[in-house]
Design a protein that fits this description.
Belongs to the UPF0126 family. By secondary structure, this protein is mainly alpha-helical. Helices cover about 75% and strands about 0% of the residues. It has one domain. The model has no long low-confidence stretch (mean pLDDT about 90).
Amino acid sequence: MGHWIYWLDLAGVAVFALSGVILASRTRMDPFGMLVLAAVTGIGGGTLRDLLLGVRPVFWVTAPSYLWVIAATVTLSLIGLRHVHRLSQAVLPVLDAFGLALFTAIGTHKALVLGHGGSVAVLMGMLTGVAGGILRDVLARRVPLVLRQEIYATASMAGATAYVVLFRLALPVGAAMLACLGITLTLRLAAIRWHLALPVLP
């Protein structure tokens, strides 16, 4: 991975870990529960991706900085716990949307760099984006966002597909990354704002 992609990945971990902290705070978990929820949200999707792609050891074992980012996020949140409690109901889905976009781009990029085909890359991008949030919601006894009616996994797949297309056209990685981030984030934020959903089959 390029240097800037590494930092983008760390940003995704921090954003998703913070979403885990907020949910843990709302469900009145203790600091250990908060750490667990932040960790599974921050690195759960990437861990599952690496296991499926046969990457050994998984990314956070070779780069413990990911774990330090999670620990720092939880520590700072505990220091400012009063402010975390005050965060509005709208903050969690917005943070989740940013994490979804970042991890979709990172997961798609990694699969393509490892030489996998476009369909596998799209699947890995989506998995990286949604798996951590699923684990977070299940542990907090909530219906995962991906299983609700609003557009979620579809936004991730659309962004990942755009990345694959631009990658195949030999455009710069930065352009493909920005397109993936923009499409995923725009679709997800629009779904949150206007409650957009795929049609339900009769």
